[in-house]
Amino acid sequence: MGDLMGDAVGDMAEIDVAGLPAYPFIGPDDDPFTPVKGSDLDRFEGPIGKVRLPFGGWAWLVTRHEDVRQLLRHPGFSSDQYKPGFPVLNPIPPKQDDASGLFIFMDGDAHSRFRRMLTAEFMIKNIRRIEPLIEKDVIEALERMRSLGAPADLMNEFALPVPSMTICHLLGVPYADHDFFQHHSRVIMDRKSGPAEVEEALGALTVLLGNLVKAKRTDPGEDLLSRLVAERVVPGELREDELVSLAMLLLVAGHETTANMIGLSALVLLEHPEHLAALREDPGLAPGMVEELLRYLTVVRTGLPRLALEDAEIGGQKIRAGEGVVAMLAMSNRDSSVFGDPDEFDPKRREAHRHMAFGFGLHQCIGQPLARAELRIALLELARRFPGLRSERALADVPQRPMAVTFGVAELPVTW
Ligand code: HEM
């Protein structure tokens, strides 16, 4: 990538953006297990270089494992996508007034104020508490799929409902509201929904969550919303509207990511029935297999964009304040200096846990214990209950979702 290396200092005005290589595109024609096309991989692996962004402008592309770690733990880079000059990878909606708790896009104290409130909630012991509920939902979804008869779309019947049911348990959405909650979260996540439908669904969920937050004052339960109401809202540390948008963030951040991981993981296991059988025989393999699936699939394929707020040096490259940077998690998870034979799926890989599928550093995924529990339970029950599971389509014919923040398959027709 030597020819792409620019002298970062002093050349901002002279950059020939049109002449830069295009940001590596993950198109619908590619093999779903290959995060970046071979030719792009050759061009972009190695030292940091400049790329032309899909919506104009340019950014530094960071692909090496160690460089990504260095970038993501550096406090001099912003996650605020509304800051001028922020490297835009996906069209972003206009800034919402009621988005006060979306701390994934915040920096510094504003970010840590919210994050700190959630740290204990996502500790393994709290996640263990809802594991039996996740298990029950997983089994229900699978048995419902069986009762509908083969062929069935595993995405629709299984991968998509599981994360929204889980978030209901986490937040403490009463059972009677589950269908309402799931219906509207599905509209929000469905790429076929028009902007008006999405807005309506967001409004309906905001009302539901708002009422729920109020109800938890008088009728608290053993759930995240009840605890945050009692410990933060009542003492005046957190406003109700902030708690509602925090809950929405958990829903949005935890839904597509986990659903696509369940769907793509099932696809990997359908392509490798020997691993599905091994999982059935030895459930103890599940945690390691989940780590390797997270590494191998890296569903946040577009990478994590950041804006430099100060001059910095990452991977030996000077980055100037005001310049955009993108951490390509999918490439750092295939860095051969960390992962031997990185393009191989090896469920017993010892170094799999070093993956960065959940990001790294300041914004590292807070929901990861929950995501791991969902994946482990979902894959174990799938292996256990559907020993004869087969894909209805050849790998090349499984439709992929067009380039989006999280990568996945659009549908996964299976039989058994
Ligand atoms: C396999 C599933 C998941 C994947 C691959 C994933 C991936 C990620 C990544 C890469 C980030 C870092 C974003 C950044 O640095 O800009 C992140 C942050 C985040 N994730 Fe996840 N996530 C998953 C599941 C979940 C779940 C289940 C939840 C919650 C219910 C969740 C909630 C969050 C939140 C709130 C943040 C923001 C953290 C912060 O800004 O400090 N995620 N996730």
From TrEMBL:
Keywords, comma-separated and alphabetical: Heme, Iron, Metal-binding, Monooxygenase, Oxidoreductase
A single GO molecular function term of this UniProt record: iron ion binding
CDD domains: CYP105-like (cd11030)
Gene3D superfamilies noted in UniProt: Cytochrome P450
InterPro entries: Cyt_P450, Cyt_P450_B, Cyt_P450_CS, Cyt_P450_sf
Family from the record: Belongs to the cytochrome P450 family.
Protein name in UniProt: Cytochrome P450-SU2
Lineage start: Bacteria, Bacillati, Actinomycetota, Actinomycetes, Kitasatosporales
